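Standup notes, protein team

Yesterday: finished cleaning the Metamycoplasma subdolum set.
Today: Ribosomal RNA small subunit methyltransferase A structure.
Blockers: none.

Input for Ribosomal RNA small subunit methyltransferase A:
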Amino acid sequence: MALIKAKKQFGQNFLTNDAIKEKIVEVSQVDNEDVIEIGPGLGAITFILAKKVKSLTAFEIDRDLHQKLSDNLKQDNVEILLQDFLEFDFNQIKDKVKIVANIPYYITSDILFKLLRNYKKIKSATLMVQKEVSERLDAKPRTKEYSKLTVSVNYVCKVKKQFDVKKTNFNPIPKVDSAVITLEFKDSLPYDLEKFLHFVKLLFQFKRKTLFNNLIHTYNKEDILNALEKIEALPNVRSEELSLEQIENLFKELN
């Protein structure tokens, strides 16, 4: 098969540094487990994972890459699917899995929320993301990086920053540096996930507005003010000033 070039429409940037490939697998701590890889590409991580895992299911949306990887990797414990991971039904799997992925940056949020919504089926996810995204996931209240994504992910997961990856380790070279993170998924959550995610979306709907103004079309004025008082927040507080714990308590008071 002819040399395969990265395709812009799939956000492809192939990792070329062998040491980083090994390090990603090392920090994912996979060991004779069921693993899902999202976007294996040319198999930079796939070949290493295949030697360590019980089973590996890789989702590749690019027909050419799927064919090449299927031809080159024929181990019995590996399945290369020509399928969009975002369309995968996690109800098909019985046991919890680990996720490993160098995810296309243009669908990072979509993939993260897909994982959050299936937290009961996932042990951990070790992901290569834009460095900016890793900073958002680890952001503190009252910083510009603190956002809906920060709160949503930290509600479901414990976030661990592993290491940074310079853009020169990819071909073609992307515009930004990357980082590898691990999300450790919680076994249970205090409140209904979908309701909580919707609540967080309301809170951060308009960043220039106060929290009160973001909620007033959904909740009663007095209820909002009473809830803010109980979590020891001022009436004019903005959502990005509240910690995850305060947001959880606010949700509890209003629901």
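Follow-up from PR in the comments: Confidence is low (pLDDT under 50) at residues 6-11.
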